[in-house]
Amino acid sequence: MVSPSYIDNNSNNFCSFSATKSRNEFDRLQSNYNVTVECSDVTCLFSKNLSMVSIICPPLYSIRIHNQFYELFFHLLSEQIDLLVPTCQYYLPYSKVIDYSRKSTPTSLAWLYAIYFQTFEHRLHTLIAYLRTLYRQPALAKPSKFVEVKTRLIREDNFYYLIHERHINFTQMPIGIMDGISFQSYHKSSIVYEPTLYDQWNRLYQPFYRSNTQTNPFESISPEEQYTILILTYKQRFYQLNRLLLHLNGLINLHRIVVLFNQIDPMGSPSQTNFTLEDFLGDYHVYLPSIHVEIVYLFNLPNDLNNRFRPWNEFIQTDCILSLDDDSFLRHDEIEYGFRVWKENPSRLIGFISRSHRSNTLQYDTSPSQCIYSMILTGAAFLHRWYLDFYTHVMSKQIRDYVQRKMNCEDIAMNFLISYLTNQTPMKIGHRETFHCYKCQESLSNKVTHYQQRTECILEKEQEQSVVYGSTDFGKTCTTNDKYKELLDKVSTMLKIKPHAVKTEKGEVVDLLTAVECKGIVGNDGRHYLLDLLRMTPPDLNYLPVDVEHLSPAMKQLEYPKTYKHRLCCLRQELIDAFIEQKYVDFYRSIALNLSKLRSAESTSNENAERTNVEEAKRIVNEISVEDNSREIIQSACRSIGSVKDNEFDVRFNPDLFQPHVTLNQTAAETAADIKLLKEAAEYLVLKQIPLMIQDFQDHSSVPVDGESLSESMHSRGINMRYLGRVADLLAQQSSLIYLYEIAVTEILCRSAKHVFRAYTQSVPIHLLSFSISHFLNCLLTVISSPVSDYSFDEFATSTSTTSTSSGSLANSTNTTSQKPNNKKKNKKQQQQRKHNPTMRNESMEFSSLTSKLLWIQLTNEAKSRYGFDLNCDDIEAFVDTYSVRRTCILRSLCLKTGLQLAMREYQYDSAYKSSRTSNECFTEDDIVNIYPVIKQVPPKPSDAYQFFTTGQQKIQQGLLREGFELISEAHNLLNNVYGPMHPEISMCLRLLARLNYIMGDYQEALFTQHKAVMMSERVLGVDHPQTATEYIHMALYSFANNLSVNAAKLLCRARYIILTCCGENHPQISLIDSNLGLILQSYGDYENALKFMEKSLELNKTFYGTRSLKVALSHHLCARIQSCRGDFRSALNSEREAYQIYKLQLGDEHERTRESAQVLKHLTEQAVVLQKRINDVVKGQLLVIPSLTIQQPSFQNVLEMLNVVNGILFIQIREKDLDIIREEIAKQSTDDSQQQPSTPSVTTISDAAEQAAALMNNEVD
């Protein structure tokens, strides 16, 4: 439960009052509820999913605060959020008559809102009732007009009614089961008290007029525990009605029957007012039955199904209502049993006939074999009469108009209404006999369109043809719309979708700007919606069953095209943007090549054209003049790149290519050009984009830490995850990227396990879900060689078989006394029950036969079919030995992908081989805490915040750190308004602000800001996320700068633990963390551990960057520093010599770092010589002991400088004159970029911009 306490300490604002009182109330809420959020702004409440809100008001009254309180109060009530208003008595509306402190049900405030404040009409009536109460004026009277007349009809508004007095006739009572019932009346005369004003406002909720009946449904019980039967019928169905009334004779708890006659045929002259029974019923009026209770007949009602649920307060005096159709014949014992069930659940809809809906299409389903239901038909259902008021006066009039227009769905509306008001499902009572009336006339449900109309009620389809654009039958029929063409014109340009035409089965030509499956729907709110956007991008030829001639020899050599599990493989939009950018470069090169040929009259080889500089090509294109025949040159370039226009660059794809159900209305040449462009895009993905990503990995410009970050890297470059096997094969060829190869293989395994796991859990009974999941994890991460043989599982199977046997024996005993046709019916019914009962299906227990060998066979096949990668492993032991992957990394990745939550404890994977499930197993069913849905979403892009951020980034590039800091702070404020206080983008923004504070020398503010970034990353990303580890590393640096070296070491150890959990110890991040740890441990004299971490960092750097890398040289230098502090000058000399040789080789003799290394090398040599001389003196006997050498400890500032170097922060001294020159160059470059034609943006989110800005300030040593 979340209970936000809305507090604001500003005296001029809404909730200002003493801080002591607000804090006491907040502490009370904090102790009463699990989660409490303190909000000081209204938007904080609107941006959260809340269940309870406590509003704390100031003690001094203010009209301004009063108005603001009304706005918030009514908004929260309309959202059905529970409110606590302990200090707001002066601000609550009508607090003199409404008792808000009164304990009631959770939905009472929702009722208050619906009755008193929902609409203008409600508020007007409430105001009038309040004024009458305030000035002691009586409420409006609604006197009862019951007149016990049998022969004369009484007129009421626009209908007539007749009360037929009761007549107990024992000769007409049912024979058999009802013989022993006594009909002696237990009714006692009672005095009706006039309710008080307090009761009218707070218990009856009826201050508008005087009433002798109570309308608050669940607070009091009627003095007569009886029910009223409500029957809706027509004159033409009098035969069924008469039979039903006689059948209902003798019900012991029945109070009255109300029969509603809908008038189908018009009645005589409108001016005629004196009608008799014969006018309405004809000759049938003499057959009106007399039973043991009164029957109220209502005539001349409009032909409207809403009449069933009108609040007939004049005729209904019981809380319970039994709604019956005139052909619903229930047994008396079933009705009385249903009434007892209703008395225990008066807020629910209790009925006998249920219906369901199909989960995939939401269609109305009447299948009797379904074991689940969604609603109860009101043709035989108990409900509280209070819902009749809500149906008529509170529920939307549009729904009632729809019911009247369609003559259908009134029961669906009532089901929705009750579930909405109570948050409870309807309850079904099992019946033993059929409801079918053999001699009854046909009803409304026998119409051909009846069930289709009910499906439309569920789906809210009020239009005959809701789809006004696109196709719903895969191109057989298709439609278009001018408004959609106008709206999609700009969208198709941005998404690079080619306008094209398709032919329907009837030969009609339809112009489209999207794929044919996209559907345009105009909603009830008048807005235009677009659905089914899966194929907004073109298909991927590498995974489509197309002719080999459509692919190049290079792709055929790589065994493309490959088969996949479906035909929905499409290219990503990021790849389309990158490919278009490459074609744009080719466009400029083609124009430059043609211009060069035209001007020099000499041919230029293709090789020289490929080497043409892009900037040079653009410069040549800008010099095009009319004399150069520019039109022909541009047209030639457009044809060469496949542009859809002949006078400008405009490359687009046809998304309906290679769709067997779509017939394109275009020439063969146009189709061939579209296929050629699509083939080039598919080749660009495999032959260019994937190798470019591998090159980025080698340059360490992108360093994924786990499978999620690897997926983000692939998606940002437009590479689908089905190419993960191809990526893994290329990574295996690079020795420096062995850590990424392990991550890629782990991701293939976990994604394959995710798909197998989903199929595995589909047939598992819900009560065995935890058991089956633990067995799956044991088979995956340990070695299980035999199937499940657990005692509890055997017990379950035995109980299931016993139940089946007993039910079978019962069926046999029943069949011996029944006829043969009944045997067939019951056998068929048993088969249907076995089909829909999960505990009786044979396939539901298949999980018990799973072993490690069988599971890994499935995983190997899944990895081969989806990713084209051969795991070549029989169990987890072989996988770990082959790929050196930690099992914890596999478990973490699988849990993130499947939504599993496990108990926090130490799992022993390597204890022993497990032949079966025993007491020492790795996973048990108690370890499975929860399983939650994994949802993918695309957050909105805050354009204003992004503009501020990029402007601040440009200021930082120009050296204006203070101005850039202010702009980024403004971007942070806008992000906070858009996303709320917690979001990954805000965490990235805070990290950049902290880095700017650190660079500008404000270490304390940098630590404070980075602390917020760490907490936010833990909340929104998780405590084990790689980004959280990066935040820890930055916070450790700022902590050390604030003389908190111990805290810095703890933060780095925590970051190291997170990286170990994500990917293991073999990763560049571990190298960075170990370097930081070594320096910090060195600062307070722990040289032994410092040297261990530094040597580990050196070993990893050699693996990832090569033995001659500048990072390796820096690691050698840092090792030499620690070794010299330990007095091991020989080792220090060797380490520094390695660093000097690398600096000399990479940077030259005159570089500053080479000279510094030479000076350190000279100093270490002198120290080593002095130490050796003193050792020789001791050997010769000239000295008794070796005197201690004076070893200069590294200063705090020196260690901080080295930490800056390790973390990529270099402070360069530059003159103001040189800085002005740099600013002019950056400004000139920005001007040139703005004049060029815009292409695909390189930065799409704040996170990307933050990474680029951080990279500008993090001048890496390489």
From TrEMBL:
Q: Indicate how the chain sits in the lipid bilayer.
A: Single-pass type II membrane protein
- PROSITE patterns from the xrefs? CLU (PS51823), TPR (PS50005)
Instruction: Name the UniProt key words of this record, in alphabetical order.
Output: Cytoplasm, Disulfide bond, TPR repeat, Transferase
Which compartments is it annotated to reside in?
Endoplasmic reticulum membrane
Where the record annotates domain Clu, the positions are 289-544
TPR repeat locations: 1071-1104
**Protein family (similarity comment):** Belongs to the glycosyltransferase 47 family.
What's the protein here called? Answer: Clu domain-containing protein
Q: Which organism is it from?
A: Adineta ricciae (Rotifer)
